[in-house]
Design goal:
The complex is a heterodimer of chains A (about 250) and B (about 55).
Chain A: H1 2-17, H2 19-54, H3 58-64, H4 67-93, H5 99-129, H6 132-179, H7 183-200, H8 208-226, H9 233-249
Helix pairs in contact in A: 2-4, 2-5, 4-5, 4-6, 5-6, 5-8, 6-7, 6-9
Chain B: H1 2-19, H2 25-29, H3 33-54
Helix pairs in contact in B: 1-3
């Protein structure tokens, strides 16, 4: 009897610590919850849009016509960021044996969520509303608003957090160099300054390449699935990518 | 860059149809030329994904 108990206990332990059972038992329900949240938000924005377009006041209509689209673009960015951190926690808890399995699990989760999050509104306009004009409008607003938002956040992060710190450190060391009299000490301070400046730069993140590829794949999806409705979508992607490269290089 | 360049050319033709030839929005931007653009996108995407695999 005791042996059977031990056997059951060990089987249960194996199941409990198995990455696959953790992914199915915990990761899948949490991911589905987020997908449902995205679908719920989409329905809420549709209702808001219908309420706005039904409004009899023409001036308000024109002013608020694009508000639901812009709000939806903001919600997409916010959901993506939140889910990314949740997915990382989930994958950390899945207890993967190798780095490649960890990355595969993270990529699967994040891409499937992003597929729903990014494309759902376009699929709604294409197959439910069956409106080319609305789909083109949604695509244009999304591509412009999302990319502008992402680039502004990136630029602010870079200029407010990183450059400010580097300038502060640089100023402190410049004062010290000016005060010092020995050439040897000056040389040492210059070297320390260079090291400190590099230390203040943005840390290298393991998932940077993964995020870049994910962004590229999402844009490729936009072009190959919906560019037919808005033929300038591809050039929007090229321009925004060039701006992003410039920001990152600066 | 291929879909971007072809897309701009197509967009200019469509906008010209809308403004000069007096076509309606739907007819101008949902033209027969979109079929050829779809085929181009299809071929370009396949080529891109295959070349990506090789890398």
């Amino acid at each position: 009897m005791l042996d059977v108990d031990r056997e059951i206990q060990s089987v249960w332990k194996r199941v409990y610590t198995n990455p696959y059972s953790r992914a199915v038992g915990v990761g899948l329900p949490v991911s589905l919850l987020f997908v449902m949240l995205v679908i719920g938000t989409q329905i809420a924005f549709r209702i808001f849009y219908l309420y706005v377009t039904d409004n009899e006041n023409a001036e308000i209509n024109v002013f608020y016509k694009n508000v639901p689209y812009i709000l939806y673009a903001i919600s997409i960015v916010v959901y993506s960021k939140i889910y990314y951190y949740v997915a990382k926690i989930l994958v950390d808890k899945e207890n993967h044996r190798t780095e490649s399995k960890y990355e595969s699990s993270l990529i699967q989760k994040v891409y499937i969520f992003n597929f729903v999050n990014m494309y759902i509104s376009n699929f709604v306009f294409a197959f439910w509303a069956k409106s080319f004009s609305k789909l083109a409008q949604n695509l244009a607003t999304f591509l412009v608003a999302k990319q502008v938002l992402v680039n502004v956040v990136e630029w602010l992060k870079l200029s407010l957090l990183v450059k400010k710190k580097i300038t502060k450190i640089s100023k402190q060391y410049d004062d010290l160099i000016a005060q010092s009299t020995s050439p040897m000490e000056k040389q040492m301070l210059k070297m320390q300054k260079s090291i400190e400046e590099q230390n203040m730069m943005m840390p290298h993140q393991k998932e940077t390449i993964m995020n870049s590829y994910l962004e590229g794949i999402v844009q490729l999806g936009f072009v190959c699935l919906f560019a037919n409705c808005l033929t300038v979508a591809a050039i929007f992607c090229v321009i925004t990518n060039m701006i992003e490269i410039r920001i990152k290089l600066s | 860059m291929i879909p971007a360049v072809v897309g701009i050319v197509l967009f200019i033709i469509q906008t010209n149809d809308l403004l000069s030839n007096g076509k309606e929005w739907k007819d101008a931007y949902d033209s027969p030329l979109n079929t050829f653009y779809s085929i181009l996108i299809m071929l370009w995407t396949t080529g891109l994904v295959e070349s990506w695999k090789r890398k």
